[in-house]
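Worked example 2:
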Amino acid sequence: MRAATGADLSSLLKRFRTQAGLSQQMLADRALISVQAVSALERGSRKVPYRYTLERIADALALSEEARIELELSAKRARGLRLEESVVAPPHNLPRQLTSFLGRAEVVKEIVTLLGQEPLVSIVGTGGAGKTRVAVAVGTALLNTFADGVWFVDLAPLSDSEFVPQALASALRVQESPNRPLLETLVAYLGQKRTLIVFDNCEHVMYGTRTVVGSLLRGCPNLTLLATSREALTLPGERAYRIPPLAVPREGIPTPEEACRFGAIELFVDRMRAVDSRAVVTTENVEPIVDICRRLSGLPLALELAAARTAVLSPSQIRERLDRIFDILTNNGAAPIPRHQTMRAVIDWSYGLLSSQACLLFTRLAIFAGGFSLESASAVCCDERLPAADLLALLSSLVAQSLIAVDFDRGDARYHLLEATRQYALQELEQHGERTALAERHLVAFLRVAERLDREWYDAPEPSWFRDAEAEVDNFRTALGWSLAERRDLRAGGVLAAALARVWYSIAPVEGRRWVRLAIDSSDNETAHDLRARLYIADAELCGSLGEYTAALSAAQQALQLCGTLDGLQQARAKQAAGSALGGLGRAGEGRPLLEAALAISQRLDNRRMQALVLGDLGTASSRCGDVEGARRFYADALAYYEGLNLQRPAASIAGHLAEVEFAAGDAAAALHLAEEAHAAHAAAQNRRAVANDLCNMAAYLIALGCFDDARAYGRQALSVVRDVKQTVLTAYVLQHLAAVAVLRPQPKQRGAGAVRKRAAMLLGFVDAWLTKLEARREYTERQEYERVMKVLSAAISDRLEDTMAHGAEWTEAVAVTVA
């Protein structure tokens, strides 16, 4: 479709709709908007839609890329500004749908209505009924209803109910706290937010889903929840919505035109055209097409699998094969087909059409969680029965037959089984007695991946390293769970846990430490000393990243006791972890010799990344010891190494450290400038833990410069981020900065000034108690600010200061955050 250049939006939309053969109502149904909205756009009474509405209209019209651009340009002209500057869609992580959504407009409307009446709606139905697609469509339709966003939680990759909170936390980008149950953290985070959360594929983790959803319903009054499952969650306040099949003709054979008005046939024909754009419904093929849709009970996935076969079979040939499969399942027609078996019939049928080699690959691929690469499939699935030379062709055939999905979101192709087909394949794997053997291969393969990532951390390009690490997190969890939690191979599990230290440090340090501790606790006197030492090093590094310096020092000292069994690099890591932990505990002088020894080893090994890391720690130690020039020198050397290695994240962190040095030297303006540079780099890299640190420091520098309004704004922003990423020490620092703003900002002479100081004193009392509990000490920036604030408070409320701070020491974190 092409419109004349410069056409206005209303005429262009009407032309595209007419060319697509759609009425306004049909377009509205496909785009999940009201017919009034379509009419208003075509009349010109509504100048421009929201961006996401425009995308839905383009998808519903199946516009070419050229036509999409034409439509977007007309929308820009209608508003007279760049489309990017129009109303921004609310936040969400709903997965993009690459195929048209047909035959479900009324279902979506009904569920939207239910969500306006009930806090929890469960979309219930058999596998392949289209529950996920409907849930995504409902979320899309409600984007403008929930101010705090619509968040999709995919439970399909999970192997155990205990991981449901982690899946929700990952979707919301909430970090786990080392001192608080994750579910409690999630309830506190969602609190009063107006949010829709979609839990998809609940049936295989029902216990964990019920626990999480029940807690959210009790603790979050403004939250709305939508679940998809093969059975209802059976929770108070739940409304179960059983999803109906797509409509099919009840009896008789309609004309081709009449047939295409039924949702099941509309979907089948649409997917048939995806295989061959010339495909049409004719008087010759309408009967077998209608029969196929009836026999498959109007189930969307079944229809899509059948339609994919039209590349090699006619509709009549497909119907013949369905007849044979259904004869088996219906006991020769003696009883009706149970609905819960219909999807198995479809997959049985599709599986039965595969070659023996394709069947073997299909079942073996079920061992992967969260997807897999071509290389991983080769390592785990190929052997003398399944030669690696045949893998690509077999995998391509499974993709073509809709049994495996492929995406290119991370660059190279990545594959995953659909939820229903993976469960089917796992059953086949069990029946063939191969599951244990495949789990062992999976563990070995992902141990190799982890060891490669561990090696490449020192010199691999940063973006590709993070991409590879994040892609395999679910497979790492599965391998750790099988080897450690199920105690199938404790030694290999320990090696894997140690090798993943850098991965967990970068992605999920709390979870990483839990796996490392499980490996340590599972070890015994027969465990090799070098493995135990590497596990203690991993524990020390992860504890250090969380600000748990006492635990970090203890683990590092355990590693150093086993130091004779370690190679040079591991010795450097152990000494660096111990020296850094000592600095965090206010014993930088004691830690410095250990850091110098780690640097000497790193130089001898010519390991530039390790040298840079230790030089940065030496800079921090020098700063803590009051050696400003030494700190500048060490940081400058570290920065040179990082820039030479093109490592942007740690280079940005060095800029943040240099800001602290400049502040200690008395130049708060220079410190603020450096912190702003670090913040920009960290924000661009989406390094939220580092962003939290930058915002905290910027608030402190602005306080020193007397810019109290800006300091409070940064402090409030910092408080939100540090609590999300679970940086407990930083949370205490930010609360102190907000108290400092309240005390140091010039106060008008009014009765409320005393109350402000009292609240600030109680807040500082809480911070003091919290830092004591964490065995943490204030850095120079926070220490000098604290002394300045205490001086003012002592003069203002000296007779009540101690009691007031003692009262604040009894507060909970939630109370302190509310007061701040």
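The two ends are 57 Å apart (CA to CA). Residues 1-5, 81-87, 325-342 have pLDDT under 50 and may be disordered.
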